[in-house]
Design goal:
alpha/beta, Alpha/beta knot, 2 domains, seven-stranded parallel sheet, 12 strands
C-alpha cells in the first residue's frame, strides 16, 4: 500500500522536486525527471517500464479514481496529496491533470550493450540532431507502436525524459530502452559491429522502402527536420526513401518515422 502524505505547505521540503517545474525543466534534473498525467503514470507504474517512480504528487480530488493504480506502489514511494491550489503553487502553474510523478532516470547502458542485448531479428531507431521535444516524444511513441527494441541518440539530441517529450510520447519514453552515444562515437560503425544494417531515411534517389527486403537486424536512421542526416552518414549507410507524389519529397520527421517503421515491420 502507498504511503499517503498530506501536503498543506507549498514550501514543505519533502516536495522540493516538484517546486518551480518549468524553471527546473530548463536547467535539467540530473538523475530525475517529472512526468505528468494519468496515462503516463500508468506506463511508469506498469511492468516493463525502464524507469521507476520516486514519489507522486496528486491532487486530493484525484485520489479516489487512482486508488486501484496506487495500491500497487511500493511502500517506500510516497504519494503526496494536496489541494489543487497548493499543488499549483508548488509547481508554478495550473496542473489541470492533477497528477505528477518524480521519477528516477534509468542508467544509460551504452549503445553497444543495448544493441547486443536485442534478439537476432530486431529493429532499432537511431536519431541524429533531433532537438525538438515534440518530435522526440512522437518518435518514441512510434518506436513503441511498431516494436522498435531500442532508440539510439547522438550527443546533439534533446532529452527524451524532458517533461514535454514524455507527455507527447504518452509514456513511451519511459518504456522503450534508449542509449546516448558518447561524443565522437561512430554510429554507423557501432551498428555494423552489432550486426545491424543502417538504413538512412532520405529523399531523392534512395531505394524505396516498399522495395526493400528487410534485414534481420535493421536500424532506421533519422535526422533533424531541415538538415536531415549528415553527408558522411548517408555515404556509409544504405539510403532508403518513402515513395511520394510527384513534386513532394518530405514529411515531418514524426510522420516519416511512422511510415518507415510500419513498412519495416509490415513483413513481420
Amino acid at each position: 500500500m502507498p504511503t499517503l502524505v498530506p501536503i498543506d505547505d507549498p514550501a514543505d521540503p519533502r516536495i522540493a522536486p516538484y517546486a518551480a517545474v518549468r524553471e527546473r525543466d530548463l536547467v535539467g534534473r540530473g538523475d530525475g525527471f517529472i512526468a505528468e498525467g494519468e496515462v503516463v503514470l500508468r506506463v511508469l507504474l506498469a511492468p516493463g517500464a525502464c524507469a521507476r517512480p520516486a514519489s507522486l504528487l496528486v491532487a486530493e480530488s484525484r485520489l479516489a479514481r487512482l486508488a486501484p493504480l496506487l495500491d500497487g506502489l511500493a511502500a517506500d514511494v510516497p504519494v503526496y496529496a494536496a489541494r489543487p491550489s497548493v499543488m499549483d503553487t508548488i509547481v508554478g502553474f495550473h496542473v489541470h491533470r492533477g497528477i505528477l510523478a518524480h521519477g528516477v532516470r534509468p542508467p544509460d547502458p551504452g549503445a553497444a550493450a543495448l544493441l547486443a542485448g536485442l534478439p537476432s531479428r530486431a529493429l532499432a531507431l537511431a536519431l541524429i540532431g533531433v532537438a525538438n521535444h515534440d518530435n522526440m516524444g512522437g518518435l518514441f511513441r512510434n518506436a513503441a507502436a511498431f516494436g522498435a527494441g531500442a532508440v539510439l541518440l547522438d550527443p546533439s539530441c534533446c532529452d527524451p525524459l524532458y517533461r514535454k517529450a514524455i507527455r507527447v510520447s504518452v509514456g513511451a519514453a519511459l518504456r522503450v530502452p534508449f542509449a546516448r552515444l558518447a561524443p565522437g562515437e561512430d554510429l554507423v560503425a557501432l551498428l555494423e559491429a552489432a550486426g545491424f544494417v543502417p538504413l538512412a531515411l532520405t529523399p531523392g534517389a534512395a531505394e524505396p522502402l516498399t522495395a526493400l527486403r528487410r534485414p534481420d537486424r535493421a536500424a532506421l536512421l533519422l535526422g533533424a527536420e531541415g538538415p536531415g542526416l549528415p553527408a558522411d552518414v548517408l555515404a556509409r549507410a544504405r539510403r532508403v526513401s518513402i515513395p511520394m507524389a510527384a513534386g513532394w519529397d518530405s514529411l515531418n520527421v514524426g510522420a516519416a518515422s511512422a511510415v518507415a517503421l510500419h513498412e519495416l515491420t509490415r513483413g513481420g
